[in-house]
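Progress note, sequence design subtask.
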């Protein structure tokens, strides 16, 4: 089946106002599928929706919603009306770098709501609709931090491990229902994410600086290519080699190294 036949007529992308979410929205629209854009920034969503319609000729619909709220799913469903979602991209996420015990507890709990609870609710709701029609797709935005434990990024790393495991389990489970699921595990990506946290990779020594910083467009394209073909996608050859090397290392070595690497990129405390 063609992409639009398998995953249309509408896709829903969370965290769509910038970065990987925006890249997914544009990439999906370029494949002929209408796009529902979900995020908190209404002005940015309105602008992006107009740009996508002008560039791709598809229809768009912007929904302003806080995915950490108890009414998030109801808000989205009310706004959707009769639009049928054939592709769900669970992209929205947040996290804090630095020592876990120095962080505000409510902020860390909100990250779990956004990174785990919201994707679960959306996958459950729209997955049932897809199952009834025998087709559809779900993208879970994980991370290489969900493959390797990331000290000084502990809660975020744990939530991304949840996304990866959830996505890979659903990949096996829902294939019998005609639903494709992929866990997308990018490394460093050009986006607003690291603008919001105290993290500066320029402080790394030369060998680490050579690690690929991928564009959001490259990451989203890798995820869309993997949909229907793989349970997990790690974009970028350098990151795939890194994951292979980590799997062969003694279990305690990758977290130990990651702790030291992360501390180099964090401000002095």
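Output:
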């Amino acid at each position: 089946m063609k992409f639009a036949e398998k995953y249309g007529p509408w896709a829903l992308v969370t965290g769509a106002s910038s970065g990987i979410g925006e890249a997914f929205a544009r990439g999906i629209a370029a494949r002929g599928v209408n796009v529902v854009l979900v995020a908190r920034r209404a002005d940015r969503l309105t602008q992006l929706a107009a740009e996508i319609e002008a560039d791709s000729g598809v229809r768009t619909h912007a929904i302003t919603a806080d995915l950490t709220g108890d009414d998030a799913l109801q808000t989205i469903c009310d706004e959707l009306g009769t639009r049928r979602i054939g592709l769900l991209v669970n992209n929205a996420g947040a996290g804090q770098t630095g020592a876990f015990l120095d962080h505000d507890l409510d902020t860390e709990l909100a990250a779990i709501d956004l990174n785990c609870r919201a994707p679960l609710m959306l996958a459950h709701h729209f997955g049932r609709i897809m199952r009834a029609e025998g087709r559809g797709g779900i993208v879970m935005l994980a991370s290489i931090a969900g493959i390797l434990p990331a000290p000084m990024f502990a809660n975020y790393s744990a939530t991304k491990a949840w996304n990866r495991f959830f996505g890979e389990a659903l990949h096996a489970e829902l294939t019998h229902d005609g639903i494709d699921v992929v866990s997308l595990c990018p490394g460093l990506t050009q986006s607003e994410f690291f603008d919001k946290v105290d993290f500066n990779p320029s402080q790394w020594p030369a060998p680490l600086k050579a690690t690929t910083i991928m564009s959001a467009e490259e990451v989203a394209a890798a995820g869309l290519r993997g949909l229907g073909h793989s349970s997990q996608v790690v974009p970028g050859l350098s990151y795939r080699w890194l994951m292979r090397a980590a799997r062969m290392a003694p279990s305690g070595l990758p977290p130990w190294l990651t702790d030291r690497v992360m501390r180099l990129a964090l401000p002095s405390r």
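The beta strands are 10-14, 34-39, 60-64, 85-90, 136-141, 179-184, 189-190, 214-215, 232-233. Work on this subtask will continue into the next period as scheduled.
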